[in-house]
Amino acid sequence: MIETIRIAFAGLAANKLRSGLTILGLTIGVGSVIVLVAVGTGSSSAVQQQIDALGSNVLLVTTTPTLGGLRGGATSSTSLTLADAGALQNRFDVPDVASASPVVNANGVTLTYGDTTYSPSTFVGTTPSYRTARDYTVASGSFFTAAQERSHARVLVVGPTVVSELFGGQSPIGSTIAVNGTNFEVIGVTASKGSNGTSNQDDVAFAPLTAVQDTLTGYGSISSITVQAKSRQQLSAAQTEVTDILNQLDPPTPGSTTSNFNVINQGSILQASSSTSGVFTTLLGEVAAISLLVGGIGVMNIMLVSVTERTRRSAFARRWGLGARTS
Protein backbone atom coordinates (compact mmCIF):
# COMPACT_ATOMS: atom_id res chain seq x y z
CA MET A 1 0.00 0.00 0.00
CA ILE A 2 2.76 2.41 0.95
CA GLU A 3 4.65 1.61 -2.23
CA THR A 4 1.52 2.17 -4.33
CA ILE A 5 0.94 5.57 -2.71
CA ARG A 6 4.60 6.50 -3.27
CA ILE A 7 4.38 5.59 -6.96
CA ALA A 8 1.14 7.56 -7.31
CA PHE A 9 2.64 10.72 -5.80
CA ALA A 10 5.75 10.27 -7.91
CA GLY A 11 3.56 10.13 -11.03
CA LEU A 12 1.71 13.28 -9.95
CA ALA A 13 4.94 15.12 -9.30
CA ALA A 14 6.39 14.07 -12.66
CA ASN A 15 3.41 15.57 -14.56
CA LYS A 16 2.46 18.66 -12.55
CA LEU A 17 0.47 20.45 -15.25
CA ARG A 18 -1.49 17.35 -16.23
CA SER A 19 -2.18 16.52 -12.58
CA GLY A 20 -3.27 20.10 -11.86
CA LEU A 21 -5.69 20.15 -14.79
CA THR A 22 -7.15 16.80 -13.73
CA ILE A 23 -7.70 17.97 -10.15
CA LEU A 24 -9.21 21.24 -11.43
CA GLY A 25 -11.66 19.33 -13.63
CA LEU A 26 -12.73 17.11 -10.75
CA THR A 27 -13.10 20.10 -8.42
CA ILE A 28 -15.24 22.06 -10.89
CA GLY A 29 -17.42 19.05 -11.67
CA VAL A 30 -18.10 18.12 -8.06
CA GLY A 31 -18.45 21.78 -7.03
CA SER A 32 -21.01 22.44 -9.76
CA VAL A 33 -23.14 19.54 -8.54
CA ILE A 34 -23.04 20.78 -4.96
CA VAL A 35 -23.77 24.42 -5.87
CA LEU A 36 -26.63 23.73 -8.27
CA VAL A 37 -28.37 21.26 -5.95
CA ALA A 38 -27.94 23.75 -3.09
CA VAL A 39 -29.48 26.52 -5.21
CA GLY A 40 -32.47 24.33 -6.03
CA THR A 41 -32.96 23.29 -2.40
CA GLY A 42 -32.55 26.87 -1.20
CA SER A 43 -35.11 28.15 -3.71
CA SER A 44 -37.60 25.52 -2.56
CA SER A 45 -37.04 26.49 1.07
CA ALA A 46 -37.46 30.20 0.27
CA VAL A 47 -40.78 29.58 -1.49
CA GLN A 48 -42.02 27.51 1.44
CA GLN A 49 -41.04 30.25 3.89
CA GLN A 50 -42.90 32.87 1.84
CA ILE A 51 -46.04 30.73 1.84
CA ASP A 52 -45.70 29.99 5.56
CA ALA A 53 -45.38 33.73 6.18
CA LEU A 54 -48.94 34.14 4.90
CA GLY A 55 -50.15 32.34 8.01
CA SER A 56 -50.21 29.04 9.81
CA ASN A 57 -52.58 26.38 8.45
CA VAL A 58 -54.80 28.98 6.79
CA LEU A 59 -57.88 28.79 4.59
CA LEU A 60 -59.07 31.99 2.92
CA VAL A 61 -62.80 32.27 2.24
CA THR A 62 -63.94 34.73 -0.41
CA THR A 63 -66.98 35.01 -2.65
CA THR A 64 -67.20 33.68 -6.19
CA PRO A 65 -68.06 36.37 -8.77
CA THR A 66 -70.91 35.39 -11.11
CA LEU A 67 -72.21 36.91 -14.31
CA GLY A 68 -75.31 39.01 -13.85
CA GLY A 69 -77.26 41.86 -15.36
CA LEU A 70 -79.55 41.94 -18.37
CA ARG A 71 -76.69 41.41 -20.79
CA GLY A 72 -74.59 39.21 -18.62
CA GLY A 73 -71.83 41.82 -18.60
CA ALA A 74 -71.98 42.92 -14.97
CA THR A 75 -70.72 40.91 -12.07
CA SER A 76 -72.42 40.13 -8.79
CA SER A 77 -71.57 37.82 -5.96
CA THR A 78 -72.96 36.45 -2.75
CA SER A 79 -71.89 38.52 0.23
CA LEU A 80 -70.04 37.14 3.20
CA THR A 81 -71.51 38.16 6.55
CA LEU A 82 -70.60 38.03 10.22
CA ALA A 83 -73.15 35.22 10.55
CA ASP A 84 -71.08 33.14 8.11
CA ALA A 85 -67.97 33.71 10.20
CA GLY A 86 -69.92 32.85 13.36
CA ALA A 87 -71.13 29.58 11.83
CA LEU A 88 -67.51 28.59 11.13
CA GLN A 89 -66.67 28.97 14.82
CA ASN A 90 -69.07 26.21 15.89
CA ARG A 91 -66.81 23.50 17.31
CA PHE A 92 -69.38 20.76 16.71
CA ASP A 93 -69.95 21.52 13.00
CA VAL A 94 -66.31 22.31 12.16
CA PRO A 95 -64.16 20.26 14.59
CA ASP A 96 -60.98 20.76 12.54
CA VAL A 97 -61.17 24.57 12.61
CA ALA A 98 -59.24 26.45 15.29
CA SER A 99 -60.57 29.95 14.50
CA ALA A 100 -62.51 31.93 11.91
CA SER A 101 -61.69 35.63 11.68
CA PRO A 102 -64.00 37.99 9.74
CA VAL A 103 -62.07 40.61 7.77
CA VAL A 104 -63.03 43.96 6.30
CA ASN A 105 -60.50 45.75 4.11
CA ALA A 106 -60.77 49.53 4.20
CA ASN A 107 -59.50 51.08 0.97
CA GLY A 108 -58.03 54.54 0.48
CA VAL A 109 -57.29 55.03 4.18
CA THR A 110 -55.04 57.97 5.11
CA LEU A 111 -53.23 58.06 8.44
CA THR A 112 -52.28 61.45 9.87
CA TYR A 113 -49.88 62.15 12.71
CA GLY A 114 -49.04 65.80 13.25
CA ASP A 115 -48.12 67.20 9.84
CA THR A 116 -47.28 63.78 8.36
CA THR A 117 -49.72 61.69 6.36
CA TYR A 118 -49.34 58.16 5.00
CA SER A 119 -51.58 55.60 3.29
CA PRO A 120 -50.70 52.00 4.17
CA SER A 121 -51.16 49.39 1.47
CA THR A 122 -53.38 47.31 3.79
CA PHE A 123 -55.82 48.48 6.47
CA VAL A 124 -57.63 45.58 8.11
CA GLY A 125 -60.55 45.47 10.50
CA THR A 126 -60.73 42.07 12.16
CA THR A 127 -60.80 40.10 15.42
CA PRO A 128 -57.85 39.12 17.67
CA SER A 129 -57.66 35.57 16.28
CA TYR A 130 -56.49 37.02 12.94
CA ARG A 131 -53.06 37.74 14.43
CA THR A 132 -52.44 34.06 15.24
CA ALA A 133 -53.90 32.81 11.97
CA ARG A 134 -51.67 35.11 9.92
CA ASP A 135 -48.66 34.43 12.15
CA TYR A 136 -48.07 38.05 13.21
CA THR A 137 -46.13 38.71 16.39
CA VAL A 138 -46.08 41.96 18.35
CA ALA A 139 -42.66 43.58 18.72
CA SER A 140 -43.81 46.27 21.14
CA GLY A 141 -47.07 47.11 22.87
CA SER A 142 -49.90 44.62 22.43
CA PHE A 143 -52.53 43.45 19.97
CA PHE A 144 -56.12 44.46 20.65
CA THR A 145 -58.24 42.07 22.70
CA ALA A 146 -61.67 40.51 22.24
CA ALA A 147 -63.00 42.89 24.90
CA GLN A 148 -61.73 45.89 22.94
CA GLU A 149 -63.27 44.49 19.77
CA ARG A 150 -66.65 44.05 21.52
CA SER A 151 -66.51 47.54 23.01
CA HIS A 152 -65.75 49.18 19.62
CA ALA A 153 -62.46 50.53 20.98
CA ARG A 154 -60.66 52.79 18.52
CA VAL A 155 -57.20 51.32 18.85
CA LEU A 156 -54.63 50.52 16.19
CA VAL A 157 -51.76 48.09 15.65
CA VAL A 158 -49.34 49.10 12.90
CA GLY A 159 -46.50 47.47 10.96
CA PRO A 160 -42.84 48.59 10.89
CA THR A 161 -43.24 50.34 7.52
CA VAL A 162 -46.03 52.53 8.89
CA VAL A 163 -43.88 53.38 11.93
CA SER A 164 -40.99 54.34 9.65
CA GLU A 165 -43.11 56.48 7.32
CA LEU A 166 -45.32 58.15 9.92
CA PHE A 167 -43.14 58.36 13.04
CA GLY A 168 -39.64 58.38 11.56
CA GLY A 169 -38.84 55.12 13.33
CA GLN A 170 -39.72 56.43 16.81
CA SER A 171 -41.96 54.40 19.10
CA PRO A 172 -45.61 55.21 18.34
CA ILE A 173 -47.10 53.42 21.38
CA GLY A 174 -49.67 55.68 23.04
CA SER A 175 -49.77 58.14 20.14
CA THR A 176 -53.02 59.23 18.54
CA ILE A 177 -53.41 58.88 14.78
CA ALA A 178 -56.21 60.35 12.69
CA VAL A 179 -57.62 57.63 10.42
CA ASN A 180 -59.58 59.47 7.71
CA GLY A 181 -60.27 62.12 10.34
CA THR A 182 -61.19 59.77 13.22
CA ASN A 183 -58.75 59.41 16.10
CA PHE A 184 -57.29 55.99 16.93
CA GLU A 185 -54.71 55.22 19.62
CA VAL A 186 -51.67 53.16 18.62
CA ILE A 187 -51.29 50.28 21.08
CA GLY A 188 -48.90 47.94 19.26
CA VAL A 189 -46.29 47.44 16.54
CA THR A 190 -45.89 44.12 14.75
CA ALA A 191 -42.56 42.41 14.22
CA SER A 192 -41.15 42.62 10.71
CA LYS A 193 -42.25 39.89 8.28
CA GLY A 194 -40.95 41.39 5.03
CA SER A 195 -42.49 40.76 1.64
CA ASN A 196 -44.36 37.57 0.70
CA GLY A 197 -43.61 38.10 -2.98
CA THR A 198 -46.84 39.98 -3.73
CA SER A 199 -47.13 42.57 -0.97
CA ASN A 200 -45.26 44.18 1.89
CA GLN A 201 -46.49 42.48 5.06
CA ASP A 202 -45.01 45.29 7.16
CA ASP A 203 -47.03 48.03 5.45
CA VAL A 204 -50.19 47.21 7.40
CA ALA A 205 -52.51 48.53 10.07
CA PHE A 206 -54.97 46.48 12.14
CA ALA A 207 -57.97 47.71 14.09
CA PRO A 208 -60.96 46.05 15.77
CA LEU A 209 -63.60 45.01 13.24
CA THR A 210 -66.36 46.91 15.04
CA ALA A 211 -64.35 50.16 15.15
CA VAL A 212 -63.57 49.95 11.44
CA GLN A 213 -67.22 49.30 10.62
CA ASP A 214 -68.23 52.24 12.83
CA THR A 215 -65.92 54.74 11.19
CA LEU A 216 -64.84 53.52 7.75
CA THR A 217 -66.78 50.74 6.04
CA GLY A 218 -70.25 50.61 7.60
CA TYR A 219 -72.11 47.50 8.70
CA GLY A 220 -72.49 45.76 5.38
CA SER A 221 -70.85 42.60 4.11
CA ILE A 222 -67.33 41.60 5.07
CA SER A 223 -64.45 41.18 2.64
CA SER A 224 -63.29 37.67 3.57
CA ILE A 225 -62.95 35.14 6.36
CA THR A 226 -59.55 33.86 7.45
CA VAL A 227 -59.92 30.33 8.80
CA GLN A 228 -57.16 28.60 10.74
CA ALA A 229 -57.11 24.81 10.87
CA LYS A 230 -55.92 23.10 14.02
CA SER A 231 -52.93 21.63 12.18
CA ARG A 232 -51.50 21.32 8.68
CA GLN A 233 -52.68 17.71 8.55
CA GLN A 234 -56.25 18.89 9.17
CA LEU A 235 -56.31 21.53 6.44
CA SER A 236 -58.13 19.38 3.88
CA ALA A 237 -60.72 18.23 6.44
CA ALA A 238 -61.24 21.83 7.56
CA GLN A 239 -61.69 22.93 3.93
CA THR A 240 -64.40 20.31 3.42
CA GLU A 241 -66.20 21.32 6.62
CA VAL A 242 -66.05 25.04 5.78
CA THR A 243 -67.33 24.46 2.24
CA ASP A 244 -70.22 22.29 3.47
CA ILE A 245 -71.29 24.84 6.11
CA LEU A 246 -71.22 27.77 3.68
CA ASN A 247 -73.10 25.82 0.99
CA GLN A 248 -75.78 25.02 3.57
CA LEU A 249 -76.10 28.68 4.53
CA ASP A 250 -76.14 29.86 0.91
CA PRO A 251 -76.72 26.98 -1.54
CA PRO A 252 -75.44 27.23 -5.13
CA THR A 253 -77.79 28.61 -7.76
CA PRO A 254 -80.29 25.94 -8.89
CA GLY A 255 -78.89 24.03 -11.85
CA SER A 256 -75.33 25.08 -11.01
CA THR A 257 -72.65 22.97 -9.35
CA THR A 258 -70.44 25.98 -8.63
CA SER A 259 -70.26 27.10 -5.01
CA ASN A 260 -70.90 30.73 -4.16
CA PHE A 261 -67.67 30.74 -2.18
CA ASN A 262 -63.98 30.17 -2.82
CA VAL A 263 -62.13 28.32 -0.08
CA ILE A 264 -58.43 28.68 -0.83
CA ASN A 265 -56.27 26.04 0.82
CA GLN A 266 -52.76 27.21 1.68
CA GLY A 267 -51.67 23.56 1.84
CA SER A 268 -52.55 23.11 -1.84
CA ILE A 269 -50.51 26.17 -2.74
CA LEU A 270 -47.58 24.83 -0.73
CA GLN A 271 -47.86 21.40 -2.36
CA ALA A 272 -47.95 22.91 -5.86
CA SER A 273 -44.97 25.14 -5.08
CA SER A 274 -43.06 22.20 -3.62
CA SER A 275 -43.73 20.14 -6.77
CA THR A 276 -42.55 23.00 -8.98
CA SER A 277 -39.45 23.52 -6.86
CA GLY A 278 -38.77 19.76 -6.95
CA VAL A 279 -38.81 19.76 -10.75
CA PHE A 280 -36.52 22.80 -10.76
CA THR A 281 -34.09 21.13 -8.34
CA THR A 282 -34.08 17.92 -10.40
CA LEU A 283 -33.37 19.90 -13.57
CA LEU A 284 -30.44 21.67 -11.91
CA GLY A 285 -29.14 18.32 -10.64
CA GLU A 286 -29.29 16.85 -14.13
CA VAL A 287 -27.41 19.82 -15.58
CA ALA A 288 -24.77 19.42 -12.88
CA ALA A 289 -24.56 15.67 -13.55
CA ILE A 290 -23.95 16.34 -17.25
CA SER A 291 -21.16 18.77 -16.41
CA LEU A 292 -19.66 16.18 -14.05
CA LEU A 293 -19.90 13.54 -16.79
CA VAL A 294 -18.10 15.81 -19.26
CA GLY A 295 -15.40 16.46 -16.66
CA GLY A 296 -15.11 12.72 -16.02
CA ILE A 297 -14.66 12.04 -19.73
CA GLY A 298 -11.88 14.62 -19.76
CA VAL A 299 -10.17 12.91 -16.85
CA MET A 300 -10.54 9.51 -18.58
CA ASN A 301 -8.96 10.97 -21.69
CA ILE A 302 -5.98 12.25 -19.73
CA MET A 303 -5.61 8.88 -18.00
CA LEU A 304 -5.79 7.09 -21.35
CA VAL A 305 -3.08 9.34 -22.76
CA SER A 306 -0.92 8.69 -19.67
CA VAL A 307 -1.36 4.91 -19.90
CA THR A 308 -0.70 4.90 -23.68
CA GLU A 309 2.42 6.99 -23.21
CA ARG A 310 3.70 4.72 -20.43
CA THR A 311 2.99 1.62 -22.54
CA ARG A 312 4.94 3.04 -25.47
CA ARG A 313 7.88 3.86 -23.23
CA SER A 314 7.88 0.35 -21.76
CA ALA A 315 7.74 -1.25 -25.22
CA PHE A 316 10.59 1.01 -26.41
CA ALA A 317 12.68 0.09 -23.36
CA ARG A 318 12.15 -3.65 -23.85
CA ARG A 319 13.02 -3.42 -27.52
CA TRP A 320 16.30 -1.62 -26.95
CA GLY A 321 17.15 -3.34 -23.68
CA LEU A 322 16.71 -0.20 -21.55
CA GLY A 323 15.29 -0.07 -18.02
CA ALA A 324 11.52 0.64 -17.97
CA ARG A 325 10.79 4.21 -16.93
CA THR A 326 8.10 4.80 -14.46
CA SER A 327 7.73 8.51 -14.97
Please characterize this protein's 3D structure.
With 327 residues, the protein is α+β, with helices and mostly antiparallel strands. Helix content is 47%, strand content 21%. The strands form 2 sheets. Strands 1, 4, 5, 6, 7, 8, 9, 10, 11, 12, 13 and 14 form a 12-stranded mixed beta sheet that branches. A two-stranded antiparallel sheet has the order 2-3. Strand 2 and strand 3 form a beta hairpin. Helix 2 (16-53) packs antiparallel against helix 9.
Mean pLDDT: 80
Structural class call reads alpha+beta
Order of helices and strands: HHEEEHEEEEHEHEHEEEHEHEH
**Main β sheet profile:** 12 strands, mixed
Give the DSSP E fraction (strand runs of 2 or more residues): 15-25%
Separate helix tally: 9
The helical percent reads 40-55%
Number of strands: 14
| Rg | 33 Å
Spans of at least 5 consecutive residues whose pLDDT stays below 50 are 67-76
In whole angstroms, the N-to-C terminal distance is: 19 Å
Inertia-based shape: elongated
Short description:
The protein contains 9 helices and 14 strands. The protein is α+β, with helices and mostly antiparallel strands and 327 residues long.
